[in-house]
Write a structure and sequence with these properties.
The complex is a heterodimer of chains A (414) and B (301).
Chain A: E1 3-11, H1 17-27, H2 33-45, H3 61-66, E2 73-78, E3 82-88, H4 96-104, E4 108-114, H5 121-132, E5 137-143, H6 152-166, E6 173-178, H7 202-208, E7 221-228, E8 240-247, E9 249-251, E10 255-259, E11 264-272, E12 275-277, E13 279-281, E14 285-290, E15 301-303, E16 310-321, E17 327-328, E18 332-337, E19 340-353, E20 360-361, E21 366-367, E22 372-385, E23 396-401, E24 407-413
Parallel strand pairs in A: 1-3, 1-4, 4-5, 5-6
Antiparallel strand pairs in A: 2-3, 7-8, 7-15, 8-14, 9-13, 10-11, 10-15, 11-12, 11-14, 16-22, 16-24, 17-21, 18-19, 18-23, 19-20, 19-22, 23-24
Chain B: H1 8-26, E1 30-33, H2 38-51, E2 60-64, H3 70-83, E3 87-91, H4 92-97, H5 115-126, E4 130-132, E5 149-152, E6 180-183, H6 191-201, E7 212-219, E8 222-225, E9 239-245, E10 255-258, H7 264-273, H8 291-297
Classes of the chains: A alpha+beta (414), B alpha/beta (301).
The complex binds guanosine-5'-triphosphate (GTP) and magnesium ion.
């Protein structure tokens, strides 16, 4: 059985994220001839004397013109050990929302640092976002080692600086690797220029990082997505609740509790298509039937009587504001949480964070693009939620602008 | 390994089913764009799983260039019957007859680009507010940038520089009147995943995908099937070769590969050993470096 690892890149503009992904794909032989020919041709057209591997992921016209990444590119490769989904994200601060998009579903983040520059503001910002998003694993890649004569001291200093900073964050699993994305050192193949480095190559780390316990298999949660009612001759009375398990285990015969109604029942059957299964766990998409006919609709949460989320109208959230337009207190939105949409209002801004120092700035009444703040949101109907720490699915929300319909903020419930 | 762990195929299946159900829950009039190719076939089978034992609650929409492989049409009609789903056909020929689209001329003429007109007209005519497609991010560099829920303005256009953030699995399908969404449930699948899924689910596929004998010519390195729509140059002499197709598109521009793979197992072996992408055989992508992005911006699949 092949496991799937989703990872994302992060770091400042030009630290070499896209080049690294190109290198990883190239050295793991995941590039096809016609793709390589196309990239060689574009590099030559630009007058480069080397093959610019970042062109493998920077697929948009404006990205290729400017040599920067604007939006996330998804890439795929497999080794005999794992399948990988890569989100290559932009380093430019203007496109932080796209970085957050790529990072939100990742189990692992590669944080790149230019060996010549060391830690810069975007390193802090992206590391902080990775910790807020509770990405369970981080690999810090100190890149462009070729430009600092592959010196151990440069690597060690950056490792120490990063450790000092990250001790203030909640990242539990951090590894470090010195690389050159351009020359390929320690990406797939071991570097011959850094004898002093005894650790693993980046690919080896990606293949072996322990991801089995990344899902929550303790607290059973199931958000109803859609009610299946065939109303055909052969399935007259079938009423199934379709959705994706967001945590814990559900088994036929289990007692369940429905929120917000508080009704209880028992699971009659669980199925995936025609196949009836005994148990379901995250992230499976299933259809559940119950013993009793109770009123359940999209947005309701099915949990267990002795372990269920809280159901409230006041939600404390760490919010990333992602829109050019600033937001003030008492602004109204649509709040999306699991499969539910309700109206909500920004009631209070408790503090805003200074990314560099992680200091709390109080008495703030407006948030501008890329601000990260602790806020209170009041919703029109109760939401049944967990803390994001407990469950990334039942603990996350987005805010949608009522006028433009844009997704303007991402929130992690505290 | 923990017993509560899904294989990568099961995880991709679960993600796709989640997205398909989200579409039905969030939109009033969704549709599935069905090309007859393996990706849209997989999408149709995933849709069946998503709503079983109910029927698929949306129609299949086929944008018919009129230049189809007969095998594709035969399969389409069989599948519609098998799944008990409604079929809607948007005809490129009709768009041309009505003067909405203009036929290309010359040796490499293709109706591929014209499909955009018919597609947007069909979406408007039936007032579809979400059109699901089987496009995958690994196919092409512009597709690698696409969201699951991809917003289209009232002219059907994609704005790649200004896409909505898409966080976790919270898909935002809110839109204004006249706008619509394109949704790509199998975004994260690779060509190999699709084949492995077809194998593990025993999904029937059109005969075109298996090695067979066919009359072909070779043009600019591509092997093209002869057909009433392929204008031959004087030096092009058709010959019979054993080939198969990796994608099924418009007949005059879809290249074949020489192959003896006549079972799914052999196809998978061949895909694993292949050094070229599946779209490497499609003339429509070779027109310029940003051919796909340009077509997508104006409303293509
Ligand atoms: N010498 C050297 N140059 C590198 C290395 N890695 C990347 N570069 C160069 O750094 C420049 C920026 O690389 P990109 O890969 O585009 O950087 P990025 O981090 O993806 O940038 P954004 O996506 O725009 O944030 C390019 O000119 C690369 O060739 C390296 O290891 N050594
Ligand atoms: Mg980049």
């Amino acid at each position: 059985m092949n496991q799937l690892l989703r990872f994302t890149t992060a770091g400042s503009v030009d630290d070499g994220k896209s080049t690294l992904i190109g290198r990883l794909l190239y050295d793991s032989k995941s590039i096809f001839e016609d793709q390589l020919e196309a990239v060689e041709a574009s590099s030559a057209k630009k007058g480069f004397d080397y093959v610019d591997l970042s062109l493998l992921t920077d697929g948009l016209k404006s990205e290729r013109e400017q040599g920067i990444t604007i939006d996330v590119a998804y890439r795929y490769f497999a080794t005999p050990k794992r399948k990988f989904i890569i989100a290559d994200t932009p380093g430019h601060i203007q496109y932080t929302r796209n970085m957050v998009t790529g990072a939100s579903t990742a189990n692992l983040a590669l944080i790149l640092i230019d060996a010549r520059k060391g830690l810069v503001e975007q390193t802090y910002r992206h590391s902080f976002i990775a910790s807020l998003l509770k990405i369970p694993h981080v690999i810090v890649c100190v890149n462009k080692m070729d430009l600092v004569d592959y010196q151990e001291e440069v690597f060690e200093k950056i490792v120490n600086d990063y450790k000092a900073f990250s001790s203030k964050l909640e990242i539990h699993d951090i590894q470090f690797v010195p690389i050159s994305a351009l020359a390929g050192d320690n990406v797939v193949n071991r570097s011959e220029k850094m004898d002093w480095y005894q650790g693993a190559t980046l690919l080896h780390m990606l293949e072996t990082v322990h991801i089995e316990s990344d899902h929550n298999h303790i607290d059973s949660r199931f958000a109803v997505q859609y009610v299946v009612r065939p109303q055909t001759q052969s399935h007259q009375d079938f009423r199934g609740y379709a959705g994706r398990i967001s945590g814990g285990i559900f088994r036929a015969g289990d007692e369940i509790l429905v929120l917000p109604s508080g009704f209880t029942s028992k699971i009659k059957s669980i199925q995936v298509g025609e196949e009836v299964i005994e148990q379901a766990f995250a992230p499976m998409s299933v259809t559940i039937t119950l013993e009793d006919e109770i009123d359940i609709s999209r947005g309701d949460i099915i949990a267990k009587p002795n372990n269920h989320p809280q159901s409230e109208q006041d939600v404390d959230v760490m919010l990333c504001w992602m829109n050019q337009r600033a937001v003030n207190l008492n602004t109204k939105f649509f709040v999306r949480h699991t499969t539910k949409e309700v109206k909500g209002v920004l009631k209070e801004i408790q503090y805003k964070l200074d990314i560099n120092s992680l200091q709390r700035l109080e008495n703030v009444d407006q948030l501008t693009m890329n601000d990260i703040a602790r806020v209170k949101i009041r919703t029109a109907q109760p939401l049944a939620f967990d803390s994001y720490r407990k469950n990334r699915i039942t603990g996350s929300i987005i805010l949608v602008d009522e006028g433009t319909n844009e997704t303007v903020a991402a929130g992690m419930i505290v | 390994m923990s017993q509560y762990y899904l294989s990568h195929l099961k995880e991709l299946e679960s993600e796709a089913i989640f997205v398909i159900r989200e579409v039905v829950a969030q939109f009033e009039k969704p549709a599935l764009l069905f090309s007859g190719g393996k990706d849209s076939i997989v999408l149709a089978y995933l849709s069946r799983k998503a709503f079983y034992p109910a029927r698929i609650p949306f129609p299949l929409v086929h944008i018919d260039t009129g230049h189809n492989f007969p095998e594709t049409m035969e399969y389409r009609d069989w599948l519609v019957n098998e799944l008990g789903v409604k079929l809607i056909v948007g005809s490129v020929q009709e768009s041309i007859d009505k003067g909405r689209a203009k036929e290309e001329t010359g040796f490499n003429a293709s109706r591929n680009a014209l499909q955009t007109v018919t597609l947007l007209d069909t979406i408007e005519q039936y007032k579809f507010d979400a059109a699901m497609g089987g496009a995958r991010r690994d196919e092409e560099k512009a597709r690698a940038k696409e969201r699951f829920f991809s917003h289209r303005d009232e002219f059907g256009q994609w704005d790649p520089k200004n896409q909505r953030p898409e966080l976790w699995n919270l898909f935002n399908g809110r839109k204004h009147q006249g706008e619509h969404f394109r949704v790509f449930p199998i975004s994260n699948w690779t060509e190999m995943d699709v084949w492995q899924y077809i194998q593990s689910e025993r999904i029937p596929i059109p005969k075109l995908y298996y090695a067979h004998q066919r009359e072909v010519i070779e043009r600019d390195g591509a092997i093209l099937s002869t057909s009433p729509w392929l204008k031959l140059k004087p030096n092009e002499i058709p010959s019979i070769r054993t080939v198969r197709f990796r994608t099924c598109g418009d007949m005059p521009i879809t290249g074949a590969v020489e192959s003896t793979a006549d079972t799914i197992e052999k196809i998978i072996e061949e895909v694993a050993a292949s050094r070229k992408t599946e779209r490497g055989t499609r003339a429509d992508d070779k027109r310029s470096e940003t051919a796909m992005e340009d077509r997508k911006k104006s409303g293509y699949f």
